[in-house]
Amino acid sequence: MWNYETRKPLAVLKGMMDCVKLLQFSADGRFLAAVGQNNTLIIWSTQDGAPIHTRITEIPFTVLSWGEILTHVNPKHPSYSLILGNQHQIFMNRLEFDISSMQYLMK
Q1: How many other CB atoms are there within 10 angstroms of residue 92's CB atom?
Q2: For labelling, which of 22, 23, 31, 90 has a CA lying 20 to 30 Å from the CA of 1?
């Protein structure tokens, strides 16, 4: 990941082993989600490039979209909607901060 204005690297995003098919930043720029050719879904933190969630699925996704950001429960660590789908199914996911582990988890 690069800073467009300074042309300097911000982070190296690791984990995608194949061609990236879908890529999208969350509305606030805090996370970047990608789906690879090998059906791998990875969500990275844009602050440090750390992978937040990795999952390999049996079915390929052709839709990746961030939905609403919910700040009413925890404004410092909001919850995020992530929509994944293909021609047969739509999956609604929620990326939520877990206070006991102090990290974001996909539900």
Answers
A1: 10
A2: 90
